[in-house]
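OP here, attaching both records as promised.
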Amino acid sequence: MRNNRLLYIITLLVGFATLLSSCVNDLESIQKVTYDPKAPDEVTKNLRVFYTDSGYARVEVFATLAETYSKPESITKLKDGIKVNFFSVDGKIVSTLTALYGEINNTKGTMFVRDSVQLVNYEKKQRMETEALFWNQKDSAIYTTSNVIVRSPDGIVYGDGIRTKQDFSSYEFLKPHGRINMGKK
């Protein structure tokens, strides 16, 4: 009986030692199994971000789905729709940019949007439509080389490429064409 008990204890100790030595969590092995280099580092649903200057809101970004990647650059992909409100100095929304897809390059301070892009200036009642454009946060410029349509109470202007301020208060076509209704004077 004593031999059986001793054999049982030795078997139990050997089994326990084997169990402890086989359960090593090697970080590299875990990363090989769980790491996907194409997967985002962060996923956010119903994103709402404010860009401020001296404590005042200047830009507000909404996105249904945001995926942030840190490599090779810090990029946030905004999927399933994006809306950007631009504020005046006194805090009013002066213009709104909408698109179906966007990418913010946090390293360079730029945003690229595409698919059904619209920029609206509420005060001037004008709307710009294009398929893709860029916004540079540093100089508050919005620009594209794509086909552009600008609709306003004064008429419709077509062009290839445009450069405007983010509030869409003034703009310059790179290659304008189309019809302008100057109204009666």
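Record two, same layout:
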Amino acid sequence: MTTDLRGLQPQHPTLYQLAPDGESLEFLFAQCPACGKLVFPANVPGCSHCGDPLQGAEKVARPGGGKLLEYVTLHVPLLPGMEVPRIAADILIDDGLIEEGVIAGSDESALRVGMALRAIGVAQPGGETFACRFVAAEGAAR
């Protein structure tokens, strides 16, 4: 779907990194040394589960993806330069952890609430960075 992105930098390096396949993304979590739970993103100042300050917390890379909870197509740009239409979604990326994400493409017809999604890198204009976008995971029910 995309080209090899290994020569580009992540648009948000505290949230994700490129996986070894050169297309998929890995999300960056911190593992709380007090309660052992994962926290996203890895650079948060404290554990959302127990309140530990996360000093010395181990950084953990996990395959990027999740479960589609809800989505909406935006037809009006919310920011200058934002391309529309764009599909914004709430995605369950880990147990109890919901994040907002952008679905690759602008056609909602293949989307189903509850479907599995995979995070991929998409090269951004200028050719220096890649952003996170979500696509249907292999074998996801459509």
